[in-house]
């Protein structure tokens, strides 16, 4: 992992392609979720208000699919890198931060400790009225109703929702201070997340894109590793 020892602070910025080899479907491209389902029917507040049961059936199914998947070597290497760097005296969590658009919890399951989930988590629910948030791993969810009497919804960022301000602030701060920024498996199609790499570029970080395909934001990166995350991450980390 010599390459990684060169950089004081590293951010891994991940999208759905990071978890594809774990078996979690991506959103766009072949086999993508939004090829099969209209997000307007399943992933926005108005869909939830029109038909909460249908939206919950969809998300219960996603929770079941995701729970059956396992983190792959790429997730594990990111977690291991942080631990090895911390043991080598490189500060809290070895100066490694994960900023993810994924809601699947795979980084945490692999052992990553600092993970900013820009789009929330499939494993949290939130009251649609009083907004109380709780962790929930039930399969399927036992009650779709909060104890205050109103519907629970997944604590994820649907189309049209705002990102959590505090999560976004922490992510921007980590990205602005990093010296190496590694984007993995994102199409760069969804804002404001797609704008975050610009903070790394502006602050002079080395920027690497891991993706089998080029993306609309590829030109921002100095290095491109064209292949799947589970192959390219071991290469990048020298394993
Ligand atoms: N390794 C790395 N990248 C991969 C792999 C792989 N094995 N397989 C596919 N990819 C790449 C694809 O080439 C594509 O560029 O992953 C990207 C997946 O793109 P999207 O499906 O658009 O996922 P993402 O960028 O995370 O989507 C952003 O869209 O609907 C929303 O909220 C959802 O967080 C999501 C956001």
Number of helices: 11
Strand content: 15-25%
Span between termini:
7 Å
Biggest sheet: strand arrangement: 3-2-1-7-8-9
From the helix content, strand content and strand pairing, which structural class follows?
alpha/beta
- How many strands? 9
Low-confidence stretches: none
The tally of structural domains comes to 2
Shape: globular
Q: Say which molecules are bound, naming each kind only once.
A: adenosine-5-diphosphoribose
* Average predicted confidence as pLDDT: 96
Provide a short characterization of the protein structure:
The chain has helices at 2-5, 16-20, 33-36, 39-42, 45-50, 52-67, 73-87, 106-110, 165-177, 197-202, 229-236, and strands at residues 10-14, 96-100, 115-117, 120-127, 133-135, 152-156, 180-184, 206-210, 223-225. It is an alpha/beta fold and 239 residues long. The strands form 2 sheets. The protein has a 6-stranded parallel sheet with strand order 3-2-1-7-8-9, sandwiched between helices. The chain has a 3-stranded antiparallel sheet with strand order 5-4-6, with helices on one face.
Can you put this structure into words, describing what you see?
The chain is α/β, with parallel strands linked by helices and 239 residues long. The chain folds into two domains: 148 residues, TPP-binding domain (Rossmann fold); 78 residues, 2-Layer Sandwich (SIR2/SIRT2 'Small Domain'). Helices cover 36% and strands 18% of the residues. The strands form two sheets. Strands 3-2-1-7-8-9 form a six-stranded parallel sheet, with helices on both faces. Strands 5-4-6 form a three-stranded antiparallel sheet, with helices on one face. Helix 7 packs parallel to helix 11. Bound molecules: adenosine-5-diphosphoribose. Adenosine-5-diphosphoribose (APR) binds next to helix 2. Adenosine-5-diphosphoribose binds next to helix 2.
